[in-house]
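Thread: sanity check for a docking pose with zinc ion

Original post by kr_44:
Hi all, I'm comparing my docking run against an independent structure prediction. Below are the sequence and the ligand SMILES. Could someone generate the full complex and paste the structure tokens? I mainly care about where the ligand ends up relative to the chain.
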Amino acid sequence: MANVEVRRDVEGKRMSEEEFMDLVERWAAKIGAQFTAIQFKPLKKAWGQCAPEKGVITFSTDLLEQPEDWINAVIVHELLHLTFPNHGKLFNLAWQNYLKNGLD
Ligand SMILES: [Zn+2]
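Reply from moderator J.T.:
Ran it for you. Here is the predicted complex with zinc ion included:
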């Protein structure tokens, strides 16, 4: 997912990797997405990357400092790439719907 200017959390809060992974697990259960590995790397040009053929998702370490809404948006985006390896109409509909309805 390409980098977009996002306002930093005013409090400068940083989500822990455990909290982040908890969100990933909950979204994966909701979406029915199956990944083989999640990794963090200092990505320069993206918030996240997905290799659907391997089931591996990489998140930018900078993402942990972003507002939770944006973190959720990126997690859902990358998990959906396991099913839709493009940014087509179905992908966008699914992305918007999951974010609109949230985790509950
Ligand atoms: Zn994407």
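Residues 71 and 96 are 14 Å apart (CA to CA). Hope that helps with the comparison, let us know if your pose agrees.
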